[in-house]
Amino acid sequence: MEKDSIQSLLLEIGRQIVREKGNDALTVRKLSEASGCSVGAIYNQFSNMDNFIVIENYMTLDSLGRRLSKVAQTQNPFFDLNNLVEAFVDFVLKNKNLWFMLYQFHLNKHDHVYTFLYLRKVVKITRRLNEIIYRIVPQMERPERILSSQVLWLTMFALSSFLTKDMLDSLPKVGRKALCQILVNTYVAGLTVLESKE
Fold this sequence. Notes:
Largest sheet: none
Helix content: over 70%
CATH architecture of the largest domain: Orthogonal Bundle
Shape: elongated
């Protein structure tokens, strides 16, 4: 089997392990058992498990990007913003374990240097937010608008850890989608007020 085929097989098996059992179950030994590849062969493909997880996280971001790109654009930018947030929450909830693996990697790997490829994937996601903010606040300067879309993304990303856990179940009146939508709408409404005063 060729190297690319082995890597693809290992990555798919790794995703299945995480989907079913959570990212704590993803160890080189478990991956070896599930795939039939030796531990040495896995390390030969990826060097270490951090590299393996980074590629898994790339795949998760790509999936999110594809999901968000399917959100239709209407004449109402606030409606589009809420649909985008809803699509994000749906994606996180349908991919809880994969998303938590991505989130936890960010939380725990302070010394990890994210590549240009990774940053491009994030920029692709924030571009949709940037476009909507432009439609809502067209007079906002471009650097400010890009910063605002990044702030929104980071806020949703931080909030997403709560979406993957059951702690919000103790607050039945605060739905996961509503929580994110209220936060994002309030932030963007604040931008319109600030811009109108300048």
